[in-house]
From TrEMBL:
The lineage of its organism: Bacteria, Bacillati, Actinomycetota, Actinomycetes, Propionibacteriales. This is Flagellar hook-associated protein 1. SUPFAM superfamilies: Phase 1 flagellin (SSF64518). One of its GO terms (molecular function) is structural molecule activity. One of its GO terms (biological process) is bacterial-type flagellum assembly. The gene is flgK.
Length: 459
């Protein structure tokens, strides 16, 4: 049989629980715009009959009130994992697209000041010289246009080198950020474990944990795995970076100053290489340094070799104004063709326009030189290949951005704060609180009647 005052306890439990509901709703509303905040929900449970009633006793089933079982974060680990995966891919593609777009602008193709225009002007200069092989103006024009072509190629080679240097600096910065995040995540894992042992609220720590894991995924495409104690382990392309309360250090291995870029994770147990194919911003930067920029520079060097071979071979077949055989028109250093290209002919009279000995007014060799267009074709293939790659990356980045936004939207439907819902919940808790207060007022009146008024009839 319930005691006389048990209903006070029931009403009091309702006051306590509905106050918690209002506190949770207030917290959700206050943090509706806080990055990384996951909506909270207070879960209630009934305080029921004793599990083992005493012999010869009976329970009237009226209930003993309500209590707040827990305040939980409205998240789904599958959605969180999917979001981290998509953000890693999105960061990879968007970083790659931005870098290639910037690099394309530096190349200046198509344009009046690009290498393609300079190659065409150089060939046109030989056409003009073939018409007027004895004129100094036409010879000077050939040398001027050759100098312009050399400058255009060397500027482009310099732009490739500058982009490589910029990407190396960026890689070091990103690696430093990864190491800071990994250390912070290990510390957060430790705090979550302590909170679990002590029974304190770990929701704020879990928000911080998810934010750190998300940023690590954006940087490295890392995969996070939840631990039994609530922490997260993170691996980068199969190599463990964070394990519980221990964090390794991501380092750029030898080769980052030129050639292949490789990464490794250093821990107390040694160094473990990270397999190629990382995603995230670091993966995009590493691919630029390892594949895209070196391949373009190699293609530009091939264009220079073809240009020099074709022009020098044909120039040596002709004769200068004084009748001597022509020499090399261009020169370069084998180790750096594009960056060291230069015009070897400095004297107007040494331009071998004639196709016959002593034929100062013959322009046969100039005509042949005007027909050497192999370098133009090779350069056009190089630029077209880069343009196709950029278009493909932009398209993939756009599609991935839409997919990432869709996944974020699905996740936010659960974890995000809806102010309309929170206001409805707040009003509902307020009314329930008022109702519980009314119950206590009614009970107080009943007890007042029982204590102060019973037995007064007839006096």
């Amino acid at each position: 049989m319930s005691g006389t005052f048990s209903s006070f306890g029931t009403a009091l439990s309702a006051l306590h629980h509905n106050r918690v509901l209002m506190d949770v709703a207030s917290s959700n509303i206050a943090n509706s715009a806080t990055p990384g905040y996951a909506r909270r929900r207070a879960e209630a449970e009934t305080v029921g009959a004793p599990a083992q009633p005493a012999m010869w006793s009976r329970y009237d089933g009226a209930g003993e009130g309500v209590r707040t079982a827990d305040v939980v974060r409205m998240t789904d680990e599958f959605l969180q994992s999917r979001a981290r995966y998509e953000h890693g891919n999105n960061s990879y593609l968007s970083t790659r697209a931005a870098a290639l777009t910037r690099f394309e602008a530096g190349i200046g193709e198509p344009g009046d000041n690009g290498v393609a225009a300079a190659l065409n002007d150089f060939r046109t200069g030989w056409h003009d010289l073939a018409v007027s092989p004895g004129g100094d103006a036409a010879r000077s024009q050939v040398l001027d246009r050759a100098a312009t072509l050399v400058e255009s190629i060397r500027v482009q080679a310099s732009n490739v080198a500058k982009e490589e240097g910029s990407q190396r600096d960026r890689l070091q910065t990103l690696v430093g950020e990864v190491n800071t995040l990994a250390s912070d995540l290990a510390d957060t894992n430790r705090a979550i474990a302590v909170a679990g042992f002590s029974g304190t609220d770990a929701n704020l720590l879990l928000d911080q944990r998810d934010q750190l894991a998300m940023r690590l995924s954006e940087l490295t495409g890392g995969v996070a795995t939840q631990r039994a104690d609530g922490g997260l382990d993170v691996s980068v392309n199969g190599t463990a970076l964070v394990t519980g309360q221990e964090a390794g250090r991501l380092v750029v291995a030898t080769g980052a100053t030129g050639g292949t870029v490789s990464l490794a994770v250093e821990t107390a147990g040694g160094s473990t290489a990270v397999a190629p194919g990382m995603r995230g911003e670091i993966g995009a930067t590493a691919d630029l340094l390892t594949v895209t920029l070196p391949d373009y520079r190699a293609g530009l060097d091939d264009v220079v070799r073809e240009l020099v071979t074709d022009v020098n071979t044909q120039h040596r077949s002709g004769y200068a104004l004084d009748g001597t055989p022509g020499g090399d028109f261009f020169a370069f250093d084998a180790a750096d063709p594009a960056g060291s290209l230069r015009v070897a002919v400095t004297d107007l009279d040494q331009v071998a326009a004639s196709g016959i000995p002593g034929g100062g007014l013959d322009g046969g060799n100039a005509t042949a030189l005007a027909a050497t267009g192999g370098a133009e074709s090779g350069y056009q293939r190089l630029v077209n290949g880069l343009g196709s790659e950029i278009a493909s990356v932009r398209r993939l980045a756009s599609n991935q951005s839409a997919l990432t936004a869709q996944v974020d939207g699905t996740r936010d439907q659960l974890a995000g704060v809806n102010l309309d819902e929170e206001m409805v919940g707040l009003v509902s808790a307020q009314r329930a609180y008022e109702a519980a207060s009314r119950v206590m007022s009614t009970l107080d009146q009943m007890l007042d009647t029982l204590i102060n008024r019973t037995g007064l009839v007839g006096r």
